[in-house]
Write a structure and sequence with these properties.
Pdz3 Domain; 2-enoyl-CoA Hydratase, Chain A, domain 1; 3 domains; seven-stranded antiparallel sheet; six-stranded mixed sheet; globular
Length: 482
C-alpha cells in the first residue's frame, strides 16, 4: 500500500514538472492550427503595437495548449489576424494574404491592371456619388491601345453609377466597361461614350517620364517616379545618370502618384539626389520594445538607414550632389515618398509643391510561416503571409510625426478641368514648379479645391497599395521565441 502510494505521488510530481515545462514553444501546434499559430507568434514578436494589444502579451498564454485553445475560437486565419490588431483607426495598413505570391507581386510593382491609373473624387463634399478621372495610361497595356487617355472622366461601370459603397466591387472585376462623361464646370455629364478594358498581370516600371528643360543658365531636370520598387532600381539609377549627363542644375521630382514602396530604395534615391552625405544617417527606425532591445544589443546598425553609394545589385549610384530639390505631391503621395521628403530635410532644402500628403510614417515587413519568419524553409502546407506594421520611421533628427500628412510650401491641387499633359511645361503643377525656380521662389496664384472631394485612387485600392516596407526580416529575432 505504501509502495503504491509512493508510485501515485511520484506520478503526480512528474506530471506537475512536465506541465510546468510545457511552455509556449515546447510543442508544435496541430496541423489544423498551424496558420493561426504562425499569425499569433509573428505578431507577438514583430507587431509595432504588440505592447498595446492584451491578446499579444508575452504572458497571455502559459502553454501552447492555451494558445491553441484561443486560436480555435476564430473561424479563419483572417478573423484571428484582425482581432489581434489594434483599432483600425490607429493601424490602417497591416494586411494578410492567403497567397504570398500575390503579395510578392505587389511589392515588386506587379499587379492585375488594365493600364488605367485613376483617381476617384466625390461630386460634392460629403456626397456618396463619386466619379473617376484618368491620371495616366501605362505603356504597352490594354488601355494603351484603347480610346482612353489622361483627363478622361468616367461616372459609371457597366452602366452602374459609382458610389462610395459600390466602387470597389465594380472596379475589382478583371473586365469591365467604363462609361465616360464630360466635366462641365464641376458637373459630370454622361456623353454616351464607353471603353471596355481587361486586366492582366502587369509589372509597372515606376520611372514613368524624364525630361530636361533649358532656361539660360538653369537646366531643370524632371522625373516622374511612381513607385519605390527594388527590382527597378537599375532603371531609376540610369534615369538619374541621364539627367546628370545632361548637366542639370535643378531637379523636380514628381511623386504625386507615388504611393510608396521599399525603404531601401527610398534611401538609394535620396543618395542619388545628393551624393555628398555617403554613410550619414538618412532615417531611423523605431520598433516595438522587445525588438528595439534585441537590435540595440545585437545589431544596432540595423536600426539606421544610411546614405549609400551603391544600388541593390552593387552598381555605383549616379548622384547629382544637389543641395535643393523640388517635389510635387498629392493626397496619393504616401509612405516611402513621404520618407524621401522627411529624410532629406535635415540635409538639403526641400520645396514641396502640390497638396498635403497621406501621412503614412509606418512601415512593414513580410512574414512567412518559417522558423525565422523569412522566405527560407517556408511551410509548404499553405501560402499565407502577413505584412504587419512593425516600425515607425523618422529622419536624422528623430522627426517623424506626420500622421496628418506633410504640408506643401506651395499649395496647388490638380484641376480636372485643366489637367494638362504630363511632362509638358504648361502642365499646371510642373509649370508652377518651373516658375518657382525661375522667379527665385515667388509663387504665382494657384488652383486649390476642397480637400474633402478626394476619395481614393487605384493604388490605394490594392490590398497593400500604400506601402513602405523593409525588404528583409531582421535576422536573429526569432530566437526571442525559443
Amino acid at each position: 500500500m505504501k509502495i503504491t502510494l509512493k508510485i501515485v505521488l511520484s506520478f503526480f510530481v512528474f506530471l506537475l514538472v512536465f506541465l510546468s515545462c510545457d511552455d509556449i514553444d515546447d510543442k508544435p501546434a496541430p496541423s489544423s492550427l498551424e496558420i493561426k499559430d504562425f499569425i499569433w507568434k509573428g505578431l507577438n514578436l514583430y507587431y509595432f503595437w504588440q505592447g498595446q494589444e492584451p491578446n499579444l502579451a508575452d504572458d497571455r498564454f502559459a502553454t501552447q495548449r492555451d494558445l491553441n485553445a484561443f486560436n480555435e475560437t476564430f473561424a479563419s486565419p483572417e478573423a484571428l489576424f484582425e482581432d489581434l490588431l489594434v483599432e483600425r483607426s490607429t493601424d490602417r495598413y497591416s494586411v494578410i494574404f492567403s497567397d504570398y505570391r500575390v503579395l510578392e507581386g505587389i511589392l515588386t510593382g506587379t499587379s492585375k491592371s488594365n493600364g488605367v491609373d485613376y483617381g476617384l473624387k466625390r461630386i460634392t463634399p460629403g456626397s456618396n456619388e463619386i466619379y473617376g478621372w484618368v491620371r495616366y495610361i501605362l505603356p504597352s497595356s490594354d488601355a494603351s491601345s484603347k480610346p482612353i487617355q489622361r483627363g478622361d472622366i468616367f461616372y459609371a461601370v457597366n452602366g452602374t453609377p459609382l458610389t462610395v459603397d459600390n466602387y470597389n466591387s465594380l472596379l475589382s472585376n478583371d473586365t469591365y466597361t467604363l462609361n465616360l462623361a464630360d466635366f462641365n464646370g464641376g458637373n459630370i455629364s454622361p456623353n454616351g461614350q464607353s471603353v471596355t478594358l481587361t486586366k492582366t498581370d502587369y509589372a509597372e516600371n515606376p520611372v514613368y517620364l524624364t525630361n530636361v528643360y533649358d532656361y539660360g543658365d538653369k537646366k531643370i531636370g524632371y522625373l516622374i517616379y511612381n513607385g519605390f520598387f527594388t527590382s527597378f532600381e537599375n532603371q531609376l539609377n540610369q534615369a538619374i545618370g541621364q539627367l546628370k549627363n545632361q548637366g542639370i542644375t535643378h531637379l523636380i521630382l514628381d511623386l504625386r502618384y507615388n504611393s510608396g514602396g521599399s525603404v531601401d530604395t527610398a534611401t538609394r534615391l535620396a543618395s542619388m539626389i545628393t551624393g555628398q552625405f555617403n554613410n550619414d544617417v538618412f532615417a531611423r527606425q523605431q520598433w516595438n520594445q522587445k525588438v528595439e532591445d534585441y537590435l540595440n544589443q545585437n545589431d544596432p546598425s540595423s536600426l539606421v538607414n544610411r546614405f549609400t553609394n551603391v544600388i541593390s545589385n552593387g552598381n555605383l549610384i549616379n548622384n547629382l550632389n544637389l543641395n535643393k530639390i523640388y517635389i510635387i505631391t498629392s493626397p496619393s503621395t504616401a509612405s516611402a515618398s513621404e520618407l524621401i521628403i522627411n529624410g532629406l530635410k535635415p540635409h538639403i532644402s526641400v520645396v514641396q509643391i502640390g497638396t498635403k500628403t497621406e501621412g503614412k510614417n509606418v512601415g512593414s515587413i513580410t512574414l512567412y510561416d518559417s522558423p525565422t519568419f523569412g522566405k527560407s524553409n517556408r511551410n509548404n502546407n499553405h501560402r499565407y503571409a502577413m505584412q504587419p506594421i512593425v516600425l515607425r520611421i523618422a529622419n536624422k533628427l528623430g522627426e517623424g510625426d506626420y500622421v496628418n500628412g506633410l504640408s506643401p510650401n506651395v499649395p496647388q491641387d490638380e484641376n480636372i478641368a485643366n489637367l494638362g499633359t504630363l511632362g509638358d511645361v504648361n502642365e499646371p503643377l510642373l509649370n508652377t514648379t518651373i516658375n518657382y525656380i525661375l522667379e527665385f521662389g515667388r509663387p504665382r496664384a494657384t488652383y486649390t479645391e476642397d480637400g474633402k472631394l478626394y476619395f481614393k485612387d487605384r493604388k490605394s485600392m490594392l490590398p497593400y497599395g500604400n506601402e513602405m516596407y523593409l525588404n528583409d526580416v531582421p535576422q536573429g529575432l526569432f530566437q526571442i521565441l525559443q
